[in-house]
């Protein structure tokens, strides 16, 4: 989208919380890979989706600094929780510190370690799963969680446009791009779901599970 359109959309979007604002400022000041942060507009979209679904259990694969986990927590049902997974101890420590200073400290549960190892140990049924981790494993994560997502539940995958690289000829794509393009094709071919690819920021694939 044209940058002026984005600015206009942001102007007419409800503001983020002080905690999220502080988190974002800290990310941009201290991290060169700040593009990994969901950011204001996408964060407000994720928050709104959560408020519409009112999930009891959200599984997030890829915590980074905790921004998106906090956004999902805003829409949780009474007694609901966000389970968030990551492998980076340093960023996880930062995420925990911001969550501890939020109203959702007791509703966001952190797990440090490989998602492929942790997911099979979880016992919950998921209302919403957010995939925002290592791109070559998107399809693996989708398969790992699918049977645990309730019928009518959602899987959202971030970065599925990958700065437009998915439009390149396959010979010109790097491995993360090829993996994301394969993921997009896989979701399109899955007759158990309905999906919409939203061209928000770097692309959100929103998948609704219709049947097992």
Describe the structure.
The chain is α/β, with parallel strands linked by helices. It has eight helices and seven strands, in the order H-H-H-E-H-E-H-E-H-E-H-E-H-E-E. The chain has helices at residues 3-11, 18-30, 40-53, 67-73, 89-100, 115-118, 138-146, 175-189, and strands at 57-61, 81-86, 108-112, 126-131, 149-158, 193-198, 204-209. Strands 3-2-1-4-5-7-6 form a seven-stranded mixed beta sheet, with helices on both faces. Helix 3 (40-53) runs parallel beside helix 4. It starts with a helix and ends with a strand. The mean pLDDT is 95.
Please state the average pLDDT score: 95
CATH topology: Rossmann fold
Provide the CATH architecture: 3-Layer(aba) Sandwich
Number of domains: 1
- Secondary-structure class: alpha/beta
What best-fitting shape do the alpha-carbon axes yield? globular
The main pleated sheet reads as:
7 strands, mixed
Separation of the first and last Cα atoms: 36 Å
State the gist of this model.
With 212 residues, this protein is α/β, with parallel strands linked by helices. The protein contains eight helices and seven strands.
List the keywords.
single chain, 212 residues, alpha/beta, Rossmann fold, 7-stranded mixed sheet, 8 helices, 39% helix
């Amino acid at each position: 989208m044209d940058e002026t359109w984005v600015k206009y959309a942001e102007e007419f979007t409800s503001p983020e919380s002080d905690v999220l604002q502080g988190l974002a400022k800290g990310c941009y000041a201290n991290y060169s890979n700040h593009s990994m942060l969901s950011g204001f507009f996408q964060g407000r979209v994720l928050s709104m989706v959560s408020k519409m679904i009112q999930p009891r259990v959200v599984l997030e694969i890829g915590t980074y600094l905790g921004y998106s986990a906090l956004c999902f927590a805003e829409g949780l049902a009474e007694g609901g929780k966000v389970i968030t997974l990551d492998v980076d101890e340093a960023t996880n420590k930062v995420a925990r510190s911001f969550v501890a200073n939020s109203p959702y400290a007791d509703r966001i549960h952190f797990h440090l370690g490989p998602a492929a190892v942790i997911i099979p140990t979880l016992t919950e049924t998921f209302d919403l799963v957010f995939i925002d981790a290592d791109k070559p494993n998107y399809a693996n994560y989708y398969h790992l969680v699918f049977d645990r997502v309730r019928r009518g539940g959602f899987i959202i995958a971030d970065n599925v446009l990958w700065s437009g690289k998915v439009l390149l000829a396959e010979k010109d794509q790097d491995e993360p791009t090829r993996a994301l393009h394969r993921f997009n094709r896989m979701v399109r071919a899955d007759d158990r779901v309905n999906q919409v690819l939203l061209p928000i920021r770097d692309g959100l694939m929103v998948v609704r599970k219709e049947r097992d």
